[in-house]
Amino acid sequence: EDLVQQMFDDLYDGLKEEIEEGVNILLERGWEPYRVLTEALVGGMTIVGRDFRDGILFVPEVLLAANAMKGGMAILKPLLADTGARTIGKMVIGTVKGDIHDIGKNLVGMMMEGAGFEIIDLGINNPVENYLGALKEHDADILGMSALLTTTMPYMKVVIDTMVEQGIRDDYVVLVGGAPLNEEFGKAIGADAYCRDAAVAVETAKEFMA
Ligand code: B1M
Q1: Of 194, 147, 149, 202, which is closest to residue 174 (Cα–Cα)?
Q2: Which of 125, 77, 120 is nearest to 101 (CA)?
Q3: What ranges make up the beta strands (E) of the chain?
Q4: 53 in ligand 1 pocket by Cβ < 6 Å?
Q5: Which residue from 8, 65, 130, 196 puts its CA 20 to 30 A from 56's CA?
Q6: Hey, whose CA ends up nearest to atom 60 of ligand 1?
Q7: 94: helix, coil or strand?
Q8: Name one GO molecular function term (predicted).
């Protein structure tokens, strides 16, 4: 679709209003919110990520792209969340200490809410105390951790090890995700599951709550 191609360009250029307009047009054309999210927004961010990696784009440009993406996500959020599903579980989610990437985490939170989970979003840069405090305070079922950097993903193990030390590891389902992770890493650090994307996170969480 031409519009999606245009949105890839607009996201690349960090044009928030244009992205918001594009999202609205796709919705008017009858696209499912989830399709708009994955094909137009996540698809566009993949291109940004590639050129960021290759040194063609730099942090300021990527920040603008992220800001534009968030504008589009804000429109989709109520649509994804509006399923009227009853609460099937409570999840604390946050990006780990040292890491400020939050788009993927936000997306997981949105999709989980849409599926009927209650989400306690701790934001970015979370030390272990934040996670453990929130799990207890909210009597949560699931801990979700996100990391986008190879340098911050080991911190997930610090959190899980601390839970083991305190004897509370088995009180919660621990799900982890983020671009540099994989199944093997999830197993190695003692998580219950690695979730490749938001849809998998929802499915996995549902299975554990069943
Ligand atoms: Co950053 N960055 N970044 N960045 N950035 C990456 C991650 C990188 C891969 C880019 C690259 O070089 N190719 C690279 C990491 C390399 C590495 O570690 N090996 C990188 C780097 C190096 C950095 C800086 C160090 C750059 C610098 O300063 N020199 C710096 C680090 C800052 C810090 O955190 N301390 C930095 C900064 C930034 C910005 C601030 C500019 C911006 C973030 C804005 C924001 O989030 N508000 C940014 C962005 C946008 C990216 C890329 C381009 C896109 C990330 C993204 O939002 N993807 C990224 C490139 C890439 O990932 N290929 C990159 C879209 C999102 C929907 O996908 O987050 O993977 P993702 O989430 C998915 C799944 O992973 C999964 O579900 C989500 C939805 O499907 N998932 C979970 C994620 N979390 C989950 C949790 C769960 C379950 C599933 O819990 C249950």
Answers
A1: 194
A2: 125
A3: 89-95, 117-121, 142-146, 173-177, 193-194
A4: yes
A5: 196
A6: 49
A7: strand
A8: cobalamin binding
Give the chain's mean pLDDT. Answer: 95
pTM of full prediction above 0.80? yes
Strand order in the sheet with 89-95: 117-121, 89-95, 142-146, 173-177, 193-194
Question: What 3-state DSSP class applies to 199?
Answer: helix
Q: Are 142 and 173 in contact (CB under 8 A)?
A: yes
Residue 181 corresponds to which tokens in the numbers above?
């992770």
Binding site membership of 78 for ligand 1 (Cβ less than 6 Å):
no
Please classify residue 104 by burial: count the beta carbons closer than 10 Å to its beta carbon, then call 0-12 exposed, 13-18 middle and 19+ buried.
buried
Whether the per-residue pLDDT at 105 is higher than 80: the answer is yes
Interface confidence, given as ipTM, is: 0.98
Q: 35 forms bridges with which residues in the sheet?
A: none
pLDDT(54) > 80: yes
Q: What are phi and psi of 17, to 5 degrees?
A: -60, -40
Q: At what angle do helices 103-114 and 59-81 cross, to 10 degrees?
A: 0
> Which residue minimizes the CA distance to atom 25 of ligand 1?
149
55 Cα–ligand 1 center, Å: 15
> What is the C-alpha separation between 125 and 119, in angstroms, rounded?
17
